[in-house]
Design goal:
- This protein is mostly helical.
- It folds into two domains: about 35 residues, no CATH class; about 50 residues, no CATH class.
- It is about 55% helix and about 10% strand.
- It has four helices and three strands.
- The protein has a three-stranded mixed sheet with strand order 1-3-2.
- The mean pLDDT is about 95.
Length: about 100
């Protein structure tokens, strides 16, 4: 959910040519199937990931949610591309 929220705000407000809200909402809705409920178990897992990987809590919570979903990779421009965190490979979609 956090990633979709950030995506929506960025593509409707923070880029040079913002998407119309209705388009951004359709894109966001199409990815909503990947969302999982955040429970105390994911929060606890994120605490461990935060400490072990030395990343911020919110990024650690994204990783914990990806682990819960069985994801093999996260696309991120913020985390270190090529790094593996909690078994999840980090890739930068903007790297050449």
């Amino acid at each position: 959910m956090q990633v979709l929220q950030e995506f929506y705000v960025n593509v409707t407000r923070k880029i040079t040519s913002p998407l119309p809200k209705n388009v951004a909402r359709m894109v966001t809705s199409s990815y909503a199937i990947w969302c999982v409920e955040t429970t105390p178990a994911e929060i606890s897992s994120a605490f461990g990931i935060e400490d072990e990987s030395r990343i911020g809590f919110w990024d650690a919570l994204i990783v914990a949610s990806a682990v819960k979903c069985g994801a093999s990779r996260i696309l991120s421009e913020d985390l270190n591309a090529g790094q593996t965190i909690a078994g999840i490979r980090i890739e930068n979609p903007f790297a050449e």
